Amino acid sequence: MNVFLLILSGIIALILLLLFCPVVVKLDYREKLKIRVGYLFPIIPIPTGKEEDPVKAAKKAAKKERAEEKKRLKEEKRRIRYEKKHPAAAEAAETQPAKKENFFSKRFKEDGLSGVIGLIKELAEIVGGLLKRITDHLIISRLDLDIAVAAEDAAKTAMTYSHICTAVYPSVRFISDHVRKCRHRIRIAPVFIREKTEFRFVLKARISIFFILSAALSALIKGLKVIKS
Predict the structure, then answer these.
(1) Is residue 4 helix, strand or coil?
(2) Is the pLDDT of residue 202 over 90?
(3) Which residues pair with residue 205 across a beta bridge?
(4) In sequence order, what DSSP letters do the residues of 119-187 get, joined into one string?
(5) Helix (H, G, I), strand (E, B), or coil: what is residue 21?
(6) The whole model's pTM is what?
(7) Strand 139-149 versus strand 181-190 pairing type
(8) Which of 72, 203, 212, 223 is the most exposed place for a label (fewest CB within 10 A)?
(9) 148 to each of 22, 27, 155, 195, how far by Cα in Å?
(10) Which of residues 116 and 157 earns the better pLDDT score?
């Protein structure tokens, strides 16, 4: 009995350890986006797609379109042959009842537009609560943004610099205010000897799986209650 309890305690402790171990996500952009995800120890790179030759891409799309059209014509011929052999089935298909209404259509007929709007508002509040519960435990250990602002001439460079600063600094402040911790370094500088703006972005964030699962479960329960009510 004691051995069983020890084994059970060990399994529970292991599950809790795994739940509270953080998932680490790292984004690195410099001309190309690199994504890495780590859990426990390894950090696994995630492919973000390779640039494809436009000529090959066009040929591939045309080939796919021809294959889909051929498949559609084949199914249409098969349907016509079947209807000729089974006219009763064709008539039954034409007179079959309409498809079942979806949830929002039914709600609209029962409660009108105000009911649908109220439902959407409640679901939006649930999603907002889900995001808040996640961001309250989200730790951004690194947020680096380096932007070298450049344009065709000095006036355009200055104007672009002003627009970028107006967009970036409030956005970073908003992120910093809505996560548990955020260490950031922002460097934006005008460069008058270039003609093209260049930037590098690095983000490293972590959160425990437990908080994601608990937030998702809570949102799911609330959503089911709203839909059933």
Answers:
(1) helix
(2) yes
(3) 25, 140
(4) HHHHHHHHHHHHHHHHHTT-EEEEEEEEEEE--SSHHHHHHHHHHHHHHHHHHHHHHHHTSSEEEEEEE
(5) coil
(6) 0.64
(7) parallel
(8) 72
(9) 34, 19, 15, 10
(10) 157
